[in-house]
Amino acid sequence: MKDVLRALIVLGCLLLIPITAVVTAATKQRMSDGAKAFFSGGPLVAGDLHTGPDPDWGFLDDVRTIELQLLDPPRSRRIWTTHHDGKLYVWSGYMNSAVGKIWKGWPGDAERDGRAVLRMGSKRFERQLRRITEGPELDGITAAITNKYPSRITRESVESGSSWLFEAAPR
Amino acid sequence: MKHFYQVTAAALLLTVLIVWFMPGASDWVETTLQRYVSRAAQ
What we know:
- The structure holds two protein chains of two kinds.
- Chain A is α+β, with helices and mostly antiparallel strands.
- Chain A is built from five helices and eight strands.
- Chain B has one domain (2-41).
- The N and C termini of chain B lie far apart (41 Å).
- The interface between A and B is medium-sized, with 22 and 22 residues.
């Protein structure tokens, strides 16, 4: 019995090492200007704030990810993006999976308060995220997404709530 | 056992220092975790 207890303690101590690595990396990222991949970053500070009319979003065809920061809570993350009919879109998958419900907190936050800042390169854009759950434009938007990314998003996944789609409208 | 706890504490401190200060270490931790979580989410 004593040996089992000792083995469990050793195992627990060994598990602490990767847990410590993850917590340290997450804390470091949270204190940074922006996000890199998985962990949330701090508020987007660097970069000129765009003013005036929207640019031609065509340049995003060559941009894999952008940074998105909500005003509340003021955390940033890296996400995929696309454009369709002159409008900008962001989305989140896995929303119905158990892991997704834990991992993907920002779509719920964005639905409550959609004020956001997007950073593309050295430019920041103030936007308002508006969730889209239905509509004739869904086919065009999901086609634009799947043409750009290996995404499984479809009209059905958006309508069922498995994927949450947002238009990033001007604010 | 006391010696083991001391070694564990030193290993944890070393982990924090490496992840925080070593260039690329936090990125590696992040991408590795992302790979596992993405697989679990599918």
